[in-house]
Amino acid sequence: MKVAILAGGKGTRLAEETSVRPKPMVEIGGMPILWHIMKIYSHYGFNDFAVALGYKGNHIKRYFAEYGTLAGNITINLGRSDPVVHHEQNHSPWSIDLIETGSETLTGGRVKRLQPYLGDSTFMLTWGDGVSDVDLNKLLAFHRHHGKLATITAVRPPARYGHMRFEGDKVTAFEEKPQTAEGWINGAFFILEPEVFDYIEGDMMMFEHGPLENLAKDGQLMAYRHDGFWAAMDTLRDKYNLQKIWDSGERPWAVWEK
């Protein structure tokens, strides 16, 4: 099953980082967040990717072109054209289609442009800036059981500020940025049938608007409710928070380490 990842947005709310690189290449723990996302899927056996490029897409192409060569040990003989790669490094068995989808194309348009690379079977889709510990096997089983065209992972977002519980004026509990207790939002990590492409009209359509709204109206959109960890890297504050979690050693989304 192929995994589509949208990695073409301009990331304007993270301009401190994205002025020189696309948002999916912003690093957490020394590795691009795109790498973290792909490692999540790879942990569950999904290693065939189609990545929609746009803004500064060459950075992503260059990264993966060099990844297999520069990760691990190499020997360079200046009299030869190619370095000798020593394969002690245990690379993930990824196959990656890196597809130019336009610098101004919106999310729905990027999904539509990936259609030739996703085939005529069920596929997965997510954004190139969000990580989670969602169990992808359970998500897929849920999708196959209900038989509709689309499954969205519904999540409770992290609170922006610390949460307090009271008895009168006494604080009985303080939680630093817990998951919110109310409201569900779009956490991406979709599973989709190819008929979903029929709901996308062109480049300038947001996937979150017309397609998802119309799938819902047609009774073809189901939600898998995930109560575990989820976070998106929209701002510099989000990046710092993810880095802090990584440095703590907790790393809930790093399912490949468990």
Please tell me the total number of domains: 1
Shape estimate: globular
Order of helices and strands: EHEEHEHEEEHHEEHEEEEEHEEH
Proportion of residues in helical segments: 25-40%
The largest pleated sheet is described as: 8 strands, mixed
Which blocks of ≥5 consecutive residues have pLDDT under 50? none
What is the typical, i.e. mean, pLDDT?
Answer: 91
Oligomer: single chain
Q: How many E-type strands?
A: 16
Q: Determine the N-to-C terminus distance.
A: 23 Å
At the first level of CATH, what is the class? Alpha Beta
Strand proportion, as a percent range, falls in 25-35%
Report a brief summary of the structure.
By secondary structure, the chain is an alpha/beta fold. The two termini are 23 Å apart. The strands form five sheets. Strands 1, 4, 7, 8, 10, 13, 14 and 15 form an eight-stranded mixed sheet that branches. A two-stranded antiparallel sheet has the order 2-3. It has a two-stranded antiparallel ribbon with strand order 5-6.
